[in-house]
Amino acid sequence: MRVIRFTLLLALAAAMVGCDDEAKPSAVSSNGIPSDPALAQIYTNSCQLCHANPAANAPLTGDRQAWAPRIQQGTDTLLDHAINGYNGMPPMGQCVECSQEQFLQLIGFMADQPLPQ
Ligand code: HEC
Asked: How far apart (Å, rounded) are the C-alpha atoms in residues 95 and 111?
């Protein structure tokens, strides 16, 4: 089931890339996934299922306003909530093999703003 869904997402992402002829270099590629391939794979396999789905009640990727108050909690709290879970946010966002560094990169990507030091 997961594999089928992932394949669908990939097909969708590919279709979206085809429509966008204005490719600008940035941390976010034109199809709304991280431009780093390793990070993109983690993102599409886990975070994206909820963080790009309004029904999941998660702060959405690229929604700076939704992320702003969360960012203000500080990086340590964000990382703690990502690793240990927080309400509807499952521990490690269902990515058991993710490193701390990757979580920070994913959070920065989804929040579309730098995390406080
Ligand atoms: C099963 C759904 C789901 C998945 C998968 C998921 N999240 Fe979340 N996440 C949520 C929900 C729901 C919230 C909002 C929780 C709340 O504020 O009550 C959330 C909130 C967060 C927050 C903010 C926590 C805070 O302190 O405000 C961070 C950071 C986060 N997720 C990171 C991630 C990362 C990184 C991944 C992928 C590795 C991921 N999430 C995958 C559902 C998910």
From this structure: 18
Question: Which residue shows structure tokens 């959070």?
Answer: 107
Distance CA 4, CA 43 (A): 16
Nearest atom in ligand 1 to the alpha carbon of residue 49 is: 5
How far from each other are the two terminal CA atoms of the chain, in whole angstroms? Answer: 39
Residue nearest atom 43 in ligand 1 by C-alpha distance: 89
Q: Nearest Cα to 93, choosing from 79, 72, 111, 113?
A: 79
When pLDDT is cut at 50, 70 and 90, the band that residue 1 belongs to is low
Give per-residue pLDDT as tens, 34-81. Answer: 999 999 999 999 999 999 999 999 999 999 999 999 999 999 999 999
- As a whole number, the mean pLDDT across the chain is 84
Q: Which of 13, 54, 47, 45 is nearest to 32 (CA)?
A: 13
CB 95 within 8 A of CB 42: yes
